[in-house]
Write a structure and sequence with these properties.
Two copies of one chain form a homodimer. Chain A has 171 residues and is mostly helical. Chain A contains six helices and two strands.
Chain lengths: 171, 171
DNA sequence: CAATCTAGCTAGCCTGTCTAGTGACCACGA
DNA sequence: TCGTGGTCACTAGACAGGCTAGCTAGATTG
């Protein structure tokens, strides 16, 4: 069990040491990551949109909620895909009736993307309940540990992606 | 700010209420998710493998560390892709010298997949340092809050994906 | 006003998934 | 022991979603 068969890979493990008491923590973290991915997958197949399109829609709606305009370029940047791919994405979402393109009031090169009422409804259906439960879970964290949990997540985020810029108004 | 312009979307928000004190927690959670995704992306482009292939490799290596054999079917199930896609994936990884197929000792239909020393080295290079830093972060969580953090993550995982089966030995 | 930059678009390519169908092999009941 | 049905892995071919290259319209700057 502890010294695996197969090729002569190093005998000093670079995988976590199981004996460490904080490993349970990292294990839970991994479980969460996996659950998150599976949720996205379910959501995307349920809505008949691919994962990128769902994230785009989520982004658009989240920014709508704060009154910020979303341009095609903004979407490309957020999703980390090319503007060309974004054009295709917007074609898909427009055709499926999830978003609308409108002229930018100030810059006539630019487009503002807005979600249709139908898209709002669809996302809402998925998220309202989930958000409620997530809030409940957040509330159930003992008051004195809240900061610790937040710090932990923040540090982990910094660790995984040092130059992350937190542009999301999503709350 | 609170009542956005644009189409006549519902005026009762289904996005989080910003006033809630625990929202910071959920916000940190979202930041972590994003950081995680970006890390995967970087890793995959850095190793010249797509995200699925990296996850496959990680899975293989993690199971190797516990002495469990990984079959093609096991990979397909874990990655949630078809066996056909898995066959192609294994072709790619075999061709690039990351894995080897060996006959299953008991079932002659089946194949055991093992990572090459080269793959071990490559993954190790990426992960050792990161794991060390993650462990440090885990250690820096106040002792009395560790359980709270773990519980929080577990509950969130259950919330996002109720039927998750925790098959990973990855620690 | 000319030169240059930027936003978004189309065309065409490449990669990675999928479904359909195949052959080899295992397990079990008659 | 010998079908019969289920399972494992594979190939072929379709399709989706990303990319780069190259374009036009409009903004910006010397």
């Amino acid at each position: 069990m502890d010294n695996p068969p197969g090729s002569g890979a190093s005998s000093t493990p670079y995988w976590y040491e199981v004996s460490d008491p904080t490993v349970g923590l990292l294990h839970a973290l991994r479980r969460f990551r996996q659950a998150d991915q599976r949720m996205r997958r379910r959501m995307s197949s349920d809505m008949d949109l691919n994962a990128t399109d769902v994230e785009a829609l989520r982004h658009i709606i989240a920014h709508h909620a704060t009154g910020e305009a979303v341009t095609a370029r903004g979407l490309a940047t957020h999703l980390d895909i090319s503007t060309a791919s974004t054009a295709k994405l917007l074609n898909r979402l427009t055709e499926s009736g999830h978003v609308q393109r409108r002229p930018h009031p100030d810059d006539r090169r630019s487009v503002i993307v807005t979600a249709t009422e139908h898209a709002h409804a669809e996302i809402r259906e998925w998220l309202t309940d989930m958000h409620r439960r997530m809030l409940e879970i957040a509330h159930s964290v003992p008051h004195e540990s809240r900061q610790a949990v937040t710090d932990f997540l923040q540090s982990m985020a910094d660790c995984l992606d040092p130059e992350a810029v937190d542009d999301t108004p999503d709350r």
